[in-house]
Amino acid sequence: MVPAARRWRGIWRVRRFGFGLGLVLGVAAAACLVAQLLSLVAQGRYVPVSPGSIWYAVHANSLVGFQSLVEQRLWPALWPWLLALLQLPAWLVAGVPAALLLLACRPRPQRGFR
């Protein structure tokens, strides 16, 4: 059996990692939102930037390969769901997990005497 102090240290590390990942995703979501707002000001209309379009611009072949992997090796019915996720606005796709991670893994106040 694992001693209680070691177990809590492990939980603390996971929470800290989750909080850091939430911060990174939050910064990415904020950057995507700012880019879309600047695009709105420049063009006069809202043109959402999706994770799929970002992925395609960075490395199109890996997106096609990922689609092939999902459809042929994993589960073909999963691809339409993933495609719908890849077509959502990027700030939303990064912002929702960021908010959930930041809320779930936020630092707890220290208990004890001061």
Walkthrough of the structure:
With 114 residues, this protein is mostly helical. The protein folds into two domains: 52 residues, no CATH class; 39 residues, no CATH class. It is 76% helix and 0% strand. Helix 1 runs antiparallel to helix 4 and helix 2 runs antiparallel to helix 3. The longest helix is centred in the first third of the chain and has 40 residues. The radius of gyration is 19 Å and the shape is flat. The chain starts with a helix and ends in a 10-residue tail after the last helix.
| Global Rg | 19 Å
Mean pLDDT: 89
The helix-and-strand class reads mainly alpha
Poorly predicted sequence stretches spanning 5 or more consecutive residues: none
Calculate the terminal CA-CA distance, rounded to whole Å: 32 Å
How is the biggest beta sheet arranged?
Answer: none
**Global shape:** flat
The figure for the number of domains is 2
Q: Helicity, in percent?
A: over 70%
Order of helices and strands: HHHH
Strand content: under 5%
Tally of contiguous helical segments: 4
Number of strands: 0
Descriptive tags:
114 residues; 2 domains
Could you outline the blueprint of secondary structure elements for this entry?
Layout: H1 4-43, H2 51-74, H3 79-86, H4 90-104
Quick summary:
This protein has 114 residues and is mainly alpha-helical. The protein has helices at residues 4-43, 51-74, 79-86, 90-104. It is flat.
